[in-house]
Records
---
Amino acid sequence: MGVKSAVKALLTGRLDREYEKRLREKKTDYDSWVRERERAASLGEDRTASGAGSSESRAVLILQKRGSLAETALRKIEDYFRRHPECEVLYGDEDAAGPDGIRRNPWYRPCWSPDLYLDCFYPGSVIAVRPSAARRHFAGLLLEEEGSRVLYEEPSQIRPGLDALLEEAGAFEKGCVSVQRLPEILFHAEDESVWETYLACPAGEGLFGHLAERAGNFGEGSLSVIIPSKDNPQTLEKCLAALKKALGKDSEIIVVDNGSSPRNREVIEKLLQGETYLYRPMEFNFSSMCNLGAEQARGNYLLFLNDDVELCDDGCLEKMCAKAALPYVGAVGIKLRYPDDLRIQHDGITNLLAGPVHKMQFFEDNRSYYFGRNRFSHNCLAVTAACLMIERRKFDEAGGFDSRLKVAYNDVELGFRLWEAGYRNVVLNNCRGLHFESLSRGSDETPEKQRRLEEERELLYRLHPAFLGTDPCYPEQLNVEGLDSRILPGYITSRNTVQRPAWRVSAQGPEEWRQDECLMVRIETAGPGRIQGYSVVLGDDNACYDRYLFLEKEDGAGERFCMKLEGQYRDDLETNLPDQRNVALGGFRVSREGERLAPGSYRIGVLAVHRIGGLKLFHWAGRCLRVRERDSADAAGT
């Protein structure tokens, strides 16, 4: 080895050790993280809170034998009942703590999810109820010496009483507030096998059938299927063939065409064979096309279906109708897979800091993820309009799709409105379809389409500001950063911090640097709150590079800015790029508060500078940052 190579190896080793130290500082395990939080919380807790209030503020605990109640659980439950008199039933989260005392594998629950409850006993090991309700439904199980606890080992022992209590409390009615979740660890299971009994304990057809009977029907009524389509006769033909296998007698198909060519129009008319064909040449507006079809529909139930979706289960529509008929249910969706019929494309829409995303997307559907997320029906803020069923009266009550959202987020916005009206949207994981995603309108990767996508996302949250960065169906303790489609506890990246903006004028630009796709760059969000994403140098040691976020004014004004990035821990980069060196700190999160950039549109790129050799690599991200007048004014005032 020559002197130059030896020096380079020495310096590289030093940078690798610095990287490992930084990585250790960013990583944490659940036991350490949760105990740090609990110690911090105990210092600021008001220990005088418990003891006051009426006897009805006290709680009866339905408690699993195999484990232990968290130290502060009872006090927190009773305090919650005092502050929320409308709450009749309360549950929370739990973790496992075996003989070694190490805390592991937290199970964070969603807000009250009636459809998940019908599929499994998800409330778990601690359920608190009001004393009067406990006396009515669990009198034979109350411990005589205490009168405030019901102990069980198998959920089947207490499920009948809880089913009756929940129904009595209005848990399966529109706008339910009587069943709530306390976002705290309330129980430490002795081992994770306890939870297997919960996941294997559905309510059964009895409760579901009773609910449907109370609703006055069992999904009975005519069904109208509305399919927006243009210039896709071959794709539409496959969609119709699969659909007709599932359709009953009392149904109709409505195809809304916004301007197919004369030849394709003729082919589509032959395909439909007497079904309704609305040929209306106009600019593509998915919302308007769906609303137009709904106006012509005769059915009590509406199914909005993309022409690139093929239903796979003959009983799918019957199950969707039965669910849509329930009084608390809004929009009903199903699990969609990619054409390989293995990878998940859609399993409900989750609302994260970066916006609406498809959790579980691209995951192989050959095993269960996060306590059956892809196995059980679950409630969610929205489902994709690629396959969305809704009762006609509820669609009319919500006002249909918002035509201002022409391409994207129209289904999300409808879901938000239904949720605000007190309905629960649901995904049925026992039904599936194949989705040949967005064949009708192509990819959203061009700068123009990305700009349109960002504009529609901003409109979505202007219409529904309460949902910005929040999702009651997705526990806040789970991972919410970026567009990560996994479902994992958020403590994994809890030691990341948002970087403050420190822009400086750049005298140099991309024309002076090596533009190379070996520098992988992904901007996940460039919204009004932050710029977030990751960058990785493929085929090299990433510990040897400094990275800079780069902005260039799109209007040719020559304004260029850059700032050095701090490494943020991304365990998904470790997982997805196992053959690359030192990529785990390739993430970045930059706040836009106080950025003080002039209004305009800026291209976004990343510059990577080798700390030893000085090599400069650059790559444009394909995304833009829009700075508006009010952004600048807000920043100047901070």
---
Amino acid sequence: MGMHGSASALQVEKPREKDALPGDSQFAHRNLTYTIYALALATAISIWFIAIRAPLWIDETGGYWQICAGFSQIWPRHFVTLSSPEHAFILWFSTKLIGTSEVALRIPSLIAMLGAVYALYLAARELFDRDIAIIAAIVFCLHPVIVFESIDARPYAFGALMVNFTILILLRLRNNNSNWLAALFGIAAGCIVWFQDLFVVILPALVICFFVVKNCDRKTLWRQFGIALSAFMLAFLPVIPIMLFLVRTSKTHVVELSPTPADLLRLFAPGWLIVGVCVTGFIAFLMHASGRQRNSSNRLEPSHLLICASLAFIPSLFLYGVSVETSVHPFLPLRHCLDAIPGIALCWAFILSRVGSRILRLLFMVSLVAVTAFFQFSSPLARLHNPSWRDALQYAEKNASTDQAPVMICSEFPESDFVTMPVDSAKSSKLFSPLSYYKVSVPVIPMPRELNDEAIRIGSSFLHEAAGKHERFLVLARRSSDKTLDWLTQIAAATYSVRQLGELDGVVVLEFVPRQSNAL
């Protein structure tokens, strides 16, 4: 009997051990899943660093120009650049701590974008399960606009941070009747426009979402809305004069052509995302054929869909409509629609939340990161941030400094076509901001971007003076100034021989040598 009792006890204990195994296995599986998610997120963020050492492009040098004259000149120069003074103060303070190298100038934007990713993850957690929230953060990180702006020494990353922070506060207001939280929502919404004026188009979406998310009585709803609106107006007041000026001078800032439906598709579904959808769709078909069951606990929430769609479509379609129907084209470049990308990431997260299999969602995310990382790390173009004047200016300095030959430069800014050229102060002018960072010691003759009356006046006067001195000189310009280059070559043909020394990162370098000097 004793032996029989012992055997019975063992038989009772064994099922308990077996019952414990599935729980341990599930815990280990969950840990493995989130480890994969963490590695995928880290890989997505690592893509940002590929071009962090690239030279500054024209707009980044414009940001450096705003701070290079010292703290006291940041506010006055803000009215010239029409850029964010808040970002300029942050950038100036950062340079005092870590220097003014290309990498150092981009560190503040990198930190701000990391904060934006975290804020979006927290916002997505208010709507979805943890794995869906991580996917939203990864889709956000991988978007080409985010990859570009994460290391761009300009205000866009801070704008993204404020957009995502505002969305987070908005979603936490859902079941919170705090007046302070409502005021914080209004202030955060107003601060969005501090960093990029075009982000004003997300405000209607935020208002719609406020009324959608609130779960309270009507009195509390309108009290919080009134507090948020009052706080927003206080935060918004400083940018009203700048926005009015931009409206009056909108045509002087137009660079891009009117967008096409393909541009709109690129915003909502970049190429790597299409590949990920195709791969996952094929796997989903195989899983469905094999009879795999759904294991998702996500429920369909129509309000969630309305929130995600409003944040994605309202700001982007508004800019697209203005660009198509008017002569002003704010939709392009796509970074102008950065405020819609958090909503786009949330839309993709909502779509993934309707996929029943957690394994399939994991495979979708892994395929996205793998495809994007492969092409980014293997492409030489990924190491280029944007065309820069650095190589052309350094070449001109080396070529012209021996005999102090003047260098004629056509500005890349469209605003240069509407103002008088700063002949005596070109090196300190915002229109020639690359010279504030990549310096040259030789004289500089400033020219507008387009061939207009100002360009003809300055070019004719300089050519007459240079020909009288038998003086060699260089001309630097982008292809947008080809008409000016052709005109200079034509009118100088009688007294100068012209040859192209090269085209460095899109900047054409021409050398004008006096014919008399050649004869001697």
---
Amino acid sequence: MLSTSFLQINYKFMRYLFILFSLLSIHLSAQKAKHNVKPKLVVGVVLDQMRPDYLIRFNKKFSQKGFNRLLKNGNECVNAFINYLPSYTGPGHTCIYTGSVPSLHGIASNDWFDRNTGKSVYCTQDNDAKNVGGTLKSGKMSPKNLWATTITDELRLASNFKSKVIAISVKDRASILPGGHTANASYWMDDSNGVFMTSDFYMKSLPSWVSDFNTINYASKLMNQNWNPLLPINNYIESTSDDNKYEGKFAGEYAPTFPHNTSNLKLSDIKKTPFGNEILTLFAKEVLKNEKLGQGDETDFLAISYSSTDYVGHQFGPNSIEIEDTYLRMDQEIEKLLSYLDAQVGEGNYTLFLTADHAVAHNPQFLMDNKIPAGYFFGKVLKDTLNKFLLTKFQHPKMVNEIGENFIWLNDSLLKNATYKKEEIIAEILNFCKQKEEIQFAVDMNNIDKAMLPSIIKEMAINGFVAKRSGDILLLLNPAWLDAYAKTGTTHGTWNPYDTHIPLIWFGAGIQKGKTMQQVYMTDIAATLATLLHIQMPNACIGKTIEEVLK
């Protein structure tokens, strides 16, 4: 028989194990319950054309309540990249919200040519739509060209359409594409008069609060302030001198320097100033308040895209005092937005992510002046010379319809009646392009498997190719060569890291503080949101959940 002392020890041990397992069970249940709690609101913030190095370069001048609050208390994915080309606004916003790539979601670029009509098509163009507010031309917009669902669509479907989704931007495409097919509203600015509007795809008339906001005429009030630097001009030591040859000028200016008398500009130029971002924050606050986002039983979604960062970047370039000043002001807008979300929804009740639709290149002349190889490529010049060459070869004029956004488009309607095969014409174009110093690769997209390309670039090209909407021949320029429309300012659109390395910060409910060092992709954003919200991924999503950012 067992001794009494042994039974007592065994009893105490079993009792200890019971308490231990009970506590563990309670802990796991609490963790599971915590994990299953969805945020009341998701806020997607896209800064058009933002380079991730801005977060480091301007950091000392940021406050502790804007970008630095996100970095300190959120999770920064420091190696986030776009995994397709071309890197433009339309595909970028679509990729963020679909978790997919152009070959699957259909938004090939900002513009493309219709194969049947030969006419140019804008990515959110809808000739059947009518304006609601604003002007007729600005209202012919909807997401009908988008083939896939967005994470915002999936949230609406998962909640039986009880979740509210609203998307806003100064740019039409930057609000329409994030909002998806089922948004309660997507609002954008009518350039001509500085008011927010939508189309009858979403509603028959503007809510009274939107009309009231437009009546205040914030655009005029902001532009009349003129654009002066936030700090003394000598403090902008992270940028080039204020007066230089790399920057574009506003109409009527003798030099691209501060102060910029915005009161003398057209109202539509507000998007080319930080005031375009400021008016969007004001509008975002009205959306949150009047639509009561984050106040219901289901998770709501507010998609905000700040576009003025892109317009300023195009005109002045990434090394300008103007872009530095724009991001110092953007830091203030982030602080305002976070503060309002804390007050309106409650700190810890919302999840926010901040990213960009693409980054941007340096001005080529700036690089050349600093002994770095670079140059300019002008599509119109190549189009003219190529058409002259093809005329002598095939006796047909204007065989090239357009060259732009990395592609050569052949004139399909002309080629239908030509005596030569399309393959012969493409072969001649490829040989012609090989002689051009600025063109590193010219690729027949219908035979890309035969192209001698690095595998990673080939994959990006395939991901970005939409057979019904993309051009026939893909042009890949040498690094730092710009497909330009001017020699001042800059642009984007390539596979190179300066265009495809983007910021990505997660913050708020359900987010694990820290840094994620592994390489992630733009397509992973929607997949991660789907996991956070316990809903289905968008129907063309190829992304993976970034597990390190979730608790």
---
Amino acid sequence: MDNIPSYISFIQKSIIDNWDRDALTDYQGVTLQYKDIARKIEKLHILFENSGVQKGDKIALCGRNCANWAVAFLATLTYGAVAVPILHEFKAEQVHNIVNHSDAKLLFAGDVVWPTLNADMMPNIEGVVNIPDYSLALSRSEKLTYAREHLNEMFGKKFPCNFRKNHIQYHVDQPDELALINYTSGSTGRSKGVMVPYRAMWSNMDFACKVIPMGGPGKKVISILPMAHMYGMAFEFIYEFTQGAHIYYLTRIPSPKIIFQAFQEIKPFIVIAVPLVIEKIIRKYVLPELDTTLMRLLLKLPIVSDKIREKICQKVVAAFGGKFYEVIIGGAAFSQEVEEFMHQIKFPYTVGYGATECAPIICYEDYKTFKKGSCGKAALHMQVKIDSPNPETTVGEILAKGPNVMLGYYKNDEATKETIIDGWYHTGDLGIMDKEGNVFIKGRSKNMLLGSSGQNIYPEEIEDKLSGQLYVNECVVVQRGEKLCALIYPDYEEARKKGLSDKDIADIMQENKTLLNTELPAYCQISSIEIRKEEFEKTPKRNIKRYLYQ
């Protein structure tokens, strides 16, 4: 694309235009206005400058979502440094590796994260800044120590007559300039550092501005997803910030109870979620009420059922605050059972598709025109195709091209060349595309199993059917020789409520297997069940780490 504007200019303009508006709130805690953020950014710029941080240097951030994390991130970009967001759920060893691999000069660390880390394992960083108050947790530089101790004094000298809008002058970025390095949290193995350019950040923001109607500044949104992940960063933080919105951070692990409470109080204008959040709400609080003889009978009557579905939809909408335009679901596969239910009650939802390598959006469609079972069409600014002789009927790899595509993997030319070929990003996902351009994901190419006669088996499709069976909480289908085995973590909480023993649960799982196999072709039927006592280990995005169970 030609004439891509400066991405940082949108951040600068929003701060100036929304100077006296509320911007970032730690839920049930402190609120920062846009002018407060400007002041904090300026102080961090002074700290960077006087401690020897140069434009292009790497600054890592690892901590739970909070206002000060967001400010530190904005300060990094607007200074001209490269941000390295690290998911706070990563183990200490992973954090050490990412800090070292990224060549980070400074690390902003949260109060929960820092005590778990070992500074000796990160020998090249010059300092660690505490996210809650920007104090120094570690300094290996006299310049950094001096700058932090004299920060207020330096700020006062630079702005003797108060800090105002006209003092703001941020770094001017170029489209192919490196903005951040985001280390993937994929469930297939070791993380890679995705080099995200400013053009990709701008393209995702421009996409959101054009397809998600906000209707002016001052609107509210809840940040549920980690900002260190591109999905949460792009669509629960950056887009809203550049539009003058008010962002609330839950600051702790967002359990369904906390999310419900926040939705009722804040009433967000848009809801961004991963399938797990939506599925838990639907399965726990809605579907059980419909599982009665009377309700099943009423739902079969055409006129009555429409009214019932409308009331159910109103109830689900109210659970999410009642004021949102739509719920956008992405980040992982969505249960067909739950999606069918949401479709039937005409709930305003849509399912998008993306990847860290595209910062993140690849496919999207507004809920009014969204096709059930798909993940939308090629997003604004993007091209999508299926690497298949007949994309409508023959499954092939999903390829994407456009300004969203990364520069490559940091210090990994080999992986970059394997992933970006002739400008097309090879997603590793498999799918088909209909005549209208709707994309239907069939699974990960790396997850695909081969049947005894060479048939392609997509375990996600089997798992989707199995997850809708009685008392199945989570499941993974793996290959044992030439046979398929289903690993199942049952819903022990519900089973115990019904007074079921472990033997009862095992018997039910065997019945589930029998029922499931009646719906599957012979080559992909389940031959055995393994019941787990604990949940599967997951990535921070709540995807099961499949490679641990192969």
